[in-house]
Amino acid sequence: MGRVYTVDDAKFFLENYKNIQMECNDFLLNAYQPGDKNEVSAQKTGRENERNIIKKLDNKVYQENKRIIKCIDKFLKSLSPENYRIIYAKYFTRMKNYDIANKYHMDISTVKRKVRKSVEGLVKLLNNF
């Protein structure tokens, strides 16, 4: 267990979910893996390609980002439809609490409470996954 995540971390991850996903995919596609002279001069064999893929998958930042993505996916699936709508509006479309309350005909304090409870659930998931 490396790092303990806070509510601020969870909010940051939700706001940057798509960016983290793109970073992971981009890393797998484009990360530079230095090869030895034999690999450069000759065509790569299947095993050398496998070794490069394994090197990429062992990258700590990549692994942590993948773990965060899995946690957020699990978190989003566990939400009730109402809470999912609120979290999606708040973090994915960046709406303000007031606008969310108006859109879904709720009290602002209810929106804040549901957001806070949901984000606390994500923090628990991130720290125990």
Give a written overview of the molecule.
The structure is a single chain. By secondary structure, the chain is mainly alpha-helical. The chain has helices at residues 7-15, 17-30, 37-41, 46-57, 60-78, 81-92, 97-103, 108-128. The chain is elongated and about 60 Å long. The chain starts with 6 loop residues before the first helix and ends with a helix. The model has no long low-confidence stretch (mean pLDDT 84). InterPro entries: RNA_pol_sigma_r3/r4-like, WH-like_DNA-bd_sf.
Mean pLDDT: 84
Classification by helices and strands: mainly alpha
CATH fold group: Butyryl-CoA Dehydrogenase, subunit A, domain 3
What number of domains?
Answer: 1
Tell me about the biggest sheet?
A: none
Helix amount: over 70%
N-C termini distance = 10 Å
> What is the string of helix and strand elements?
HHHHHHHH
What's the CATH class label? Answer: Mainly Alpha
Principal-axes geometry comes out as elongated
Topology:
Layout: H1 7-15, H2 17-30, H3 37-41, H4 46-57, H5 60-78, H6 81-92, H7 97-103, H8 108-128
Short description:
InterPro entries: RNA_pol_sigma_r3/r4-like, WH-like_DNA-bd_sf. The protein is an all-alpha fold and 129 residues long.
Characteristic key phrases:
Butyryl-CoA Dehydrogenase, subunit A, domain 3; mainly alpha; 77% helix; WH-like_DNA-bd_sf; RNA_pol_sigma_r3/r4-like
